[in-house]
Write a structure and sequence with these properties.
Blueprint (H helix, E strand, L loop, with lengths): L23 H19 L18 H7 L12 H15 L10 H29 L9 H28 L4 H19 L21 H10 L3 H25 L2 E8 L6 E7 L6 H20 L1 E3 L2 E7 L2 E6 L2 E6 H6 L6 H7 L4 H28 L4 H10 L2 E2 L7 H8 L3 H21 L6 H20 L7 H6 L5
Antiparallel strand pairs: 1-2, 1-7, 3-4, 4-5, 5-6
Helix pairs in contact: 1-5, 1-6, 2-6, 3-4, 3-9, 3-12, 4-5, 6-16, 7-8, 8-16, 9-12, 12-15, 13-14, 15-16
Length: 482
């Protein structure tokens, strides 16, 4: 007899769905509350973990942006366990190891329960691994301190899971997207405007050149002193970030419009728009999280070399350990992770080698392939496939002109668009994210691309909401008030 996973739902923490349709003001309020709570948990002032060595958390700076986390705080796990659980389930369903049909209501309910259960399992497992492996270093290794840190990490992870559910049911968008965007915007602001210099008290990022971390300040000071190349190198990431923002904003407007007509009323119709980025930013989130987890795991199992304590090696490769983080220097992780340099600046400096080119090509190929794979899986597991869309169109009393009003016929027509778009969308957004990483856009290329698509998605969702009675600032945001 097959076990019905839905039976465990009553044992899992849950946020009940609203029995009414929340107003836009209330959705913004709940989203804002969760965002404020996120920043408090991610702050080393409010959310600092008890019993840890905070200096030992700086080496995971890059992962923080991809996972919306802040190591050493209650937000240490970030969205990592939620996304990892989603990746695992999608792989199992895509490989037919779990035979669930996402078009069936019963199987969708099973998926939702399984996703929450797996996320909670990963929260507990990752909390233990982070402490045992040394990703989070305790001040002392007694049983009470170790247990207290694991408990704090677990509680923080569960709060993130609940906040994601609150935003999904009562707010705008999803918590996963919101926390990624918030973390990246915070880092972009610091990278642009921080006047902090190397060695100064309170510096959030290391800088060996003894110039302001903020590129705006660095450019202004170097330009004023007549230092051409330092000023140029400070300006390039500003320009590449603007370039990526413009390209992504333009790509968001590319759509394929399917004409529809009301079956009961002649002469009235509308268009069903399918975006180029059909699955939005989810493929990039999942692919970036996969690479981040591979890199994190590789760094955790790597052990310092006896003759060189600044270099750690393990099964997945070697890492150079510094204040700014674990930088892969060889092995599988080295070739699958972003070079984290600016290829334009490297070309000007003449530091591009054959190994560098191979790394760029392998990273791009792997990242784009994962984006395409996750895009296809996401369409089949999230109700965005041709059959689900055809049933949705049929349920609102519409049909495709020139065809009989039959969901199966509409599905055959949509099959010409949706499957190719799922591949092309994953390919396009994957290439853009990889390009943004390679040309050194702020907040990591992947992070800035995710942020732009997330903010665009929020704006589009705002436009579909009923703005009657909404706050004037909200109306201005959606363009309903001058």
């Amino acid at each position: 007899m097959e076990f019905d996973i839905r039976k465990i739902a009553k044992f899992l923490p849950a946020i009940e769905r609203p029995t009414y349709k929340p107003s836009l003001n209330k959705k913004v309020m709940w989203t804002g509350i969760c965002l404020i709570l996120y920043f408090m948990m991610a702050s080393h002032f409010f959310g600092q973990l008890y019993g840890i060595n905070p200096e030992a958390t700086k080496r995971f700076h890059t992962l923080e942006m991809l996972l919306g986390s802040s190591f050493g705080t209650l937000m240490t796990l970030g969205i990592g366990p939620i996304v990892t659980g989603s990746i695992l389930l999608q792989l199992l369903i895509g490989a037919k190891i779990i035979n669930w049909d996402m078009n069936e209501k019963e199987d969708k309910e099973k998926y939702q329960v399984a996703q929450k259960a797996v996320s909670i399992l990963f929260i507990i497992i990752e909390s233990i691994i982070f402490v045992v492996s040394g990703a989070i270093l305790p001040k002392s290794y007694d049983a009470f301190t170790m247990f207290a840190i694991v408990l704090q990490l677990t509680i923080g992870g569960l709060i993130v899971l609940m906040m994601d559910e609150i935003i999904t049911k009562y707010g705008i968008g999803s918590g996963i997207s919101l926390f990624i965007a918030a973390g990246v915007i915070n880092q972009v602001f610091i990278s642009l405007f921080s006047p902090c210099v190397s060695g100064a008290t309170g510096c959030m990022l290391p800088n060996a050149d003894n110039e302001p971390i903020g590129k705006v300040w660095a450019f202004a000071l170097n330009a004023a002193n007549g230092y051409f190349y330092p000023a140029l190198f400070a300006l390039i990431p500003i320009l590449t970030t603007i370039f990526i923002v413009v390209i992504v904003a333009y790509a968001q407007s590319i759509t394929v419009d399917v004409p529809l007509a009301f079956s009961a009323v002649k002469g009235f119709g509308r268009r069903w728009s399918l975006n180029l980025f059909y699955t939005s930013n989810m493929p990039v989130i999942l692919a970036a999280a996969l690479i981040a987890n591979i890199e994190l795991f590789g760094g955790l199992i790597a052990k310092p070399l006896p003759n060189d304590p600044t270099t750690s090696c393990g099964l997945l490769g070697c890492f150079a350990t510094s204040q700014s983080g674990n930088q892969p220097t060889s092995g599988i992780v080295y070739y699958l992770s972003s070079p984290r340099t600016n290829i334009i600046i490297d070309a000007i400096n003449g530091s591009i080698t054959s190994q560098y080119i191979i790394r760029v090509l392998l990273y791009t190929l792997f990242f784009v392939s994962m984006c395409v794979l996750f895009s296809v899986f996401w369409v089949s597991t999230s109700g965005m496939d041709s059959e689900s869309v055809a049933n949705q169109i049929d349920s609102i009393g519409m049909q495709i002109p020139g065809y009989r009003k039959n969901p199966k016929i509409m599905k055959s027509v949509l099959d010409r668009y949706i499957p190719p778009l799922s591949v092309l969308g994953g390919l396009s957004i994957g290439l853009l994210a990889a390009l943004a990483d390679l040309i050194g856009a702020f907040g990591s290329g992947t992070g800035i691309l995710l942020t732009v698509t997330i903010l665009y998605g929020f704006h589009q969702q705002f436009k579909t909401e009923e703005v009657e009675g909404a706050h004037p600032l909200i109306k201005k945001f959606v363009g309903e008030e001058k």
